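Quick one:
INPUT:
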C-alpha cells in the first residue's frame, strides 16, 4: 500500500496542473531516450568495426526469395515506426510505462549485440550485380556502404519491430481500435518481409528475431510492465 501511494504521488509530481505531463518531465524523457539511442548506436558501430571469425547464416529458403529493391521504402519505414513508438510512449501519463518500454526495447537490442560478440555471424546473400538500375537500387547501394552484412542473427530490425507492435497494441490505448491494429500489423509485415527481399537477412535471422521478440515481450508483460490493464493508459497525444 505504501509503495502504491508513493508511486501515485510520483506520477502526480510529473503532471502539470491540467493533468498532463509537465514540460520538464517530457524533456527529461526525450533526453533519456535520445541518450540511450546514441549509446546503442555507438556500441553497434563498435561491434561492427570488429574483425571477427564470422559464421555464414544460410537456409535453402533464402535461395527461393528473389531480390527486389522496391522493398527499400518498407525497410526504411522501420525508423519512423520506432520513432513513433518512442514518442507515443514518452507521452504516456502512466509514469513508469515509458521507461519500461525503453528497457524492453533497448535491453533486447543490447542483448543482440552481446550475442553477436559471442557468436559472430553474417550473411552472404547480397547480389553481386543489381538486376535493375533505378532510385531504389541507388538507395540499396548506400545501405550496403553504411550497413555491413555482419551481425545479423537474430535480426534487430525484426526484434524491435515486433516489440514495438506488441507494446503499442497491448500496453496503450491504441489497442482499443482495430484500425490501429491493422495499420501497425501492415508495418510489421512489410518491414519483416523487406529484410529478406533486400537480402539484408536470412530467413533464419528473421525467425530468431521473431522468437526473441515474442519471448522478451511476454516475459516483460509478466514480470516487467505494470499490471494496469493496457486500455487504462492515457497519452497526451491526439491520435
Amino acid at each position: 500500500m505504501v509503495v502504491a501511494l508513493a508511486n501515485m504521488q510520483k506520477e502526480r509530481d510529473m503532471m502539470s496542473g491540467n493533468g498532463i505531463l509537465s514540460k520538464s518531465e517530457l524533456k527529461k524523457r526525450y533526453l533519456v531516450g535520445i541518450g540511450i539511442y546514441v549509446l546503442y548506436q555507438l556500441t553497434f558501430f563498435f561491434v561492427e568495426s570488429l574483425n571477427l571469425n564470422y559464421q555464414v547464416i544460410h537456409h535453402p529458403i533464402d535461395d527461393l526469395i528473389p531480390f527486389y529493391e522496391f522493398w527499400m521504402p518498407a525497410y526504411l519505414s522501420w525508423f519512423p515506426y520506432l520513432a513513433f513508438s518512442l514518442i507515443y510512449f514518452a507521452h504516456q501519463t502512466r509514469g513508469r510505462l515509458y521507461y519500461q518500454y525503453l528497457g524492453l526495447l533497448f535491453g533486447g537490442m543490447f542483448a543482440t549485440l552481446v550475442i553477436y560478440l559471442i557468436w559472430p555471424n553474417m550473411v552472404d546473400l547480397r547480389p553481386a550485380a543489381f538486376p535493375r538500375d533505378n532510385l531504389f537500387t541507388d538507395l540499396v547501394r548506400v545501405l550496403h556502404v553504411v550497413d555491413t552484412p555482419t551481425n545479423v542473427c537474430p535480426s534487430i530490425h525484426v526484434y524491435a519491430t515486433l516489440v514495438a507492435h506488441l507494446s503499442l497494441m497491448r500496453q496503450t490505448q491504441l489497442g482499443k481500435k482495430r484500425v490501429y491494429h491493422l495499420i501497425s500489423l501492415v508495418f510489421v509485415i512489410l518491414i519483416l518481409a523487406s529484410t529478406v527481399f533486400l537480402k539484408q537477412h536470412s530467413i533464419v535471422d528473421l525467425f530468431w528475431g521473431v522468437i526473441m521478440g515474442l519471448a522478451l515481450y511476454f516475459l516483460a508483460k509478466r514480470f516487467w510492465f505494470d499490471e494496469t490493464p493496457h486500455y487504462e493508459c492515457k497519452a497526451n497525444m491526439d491520435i
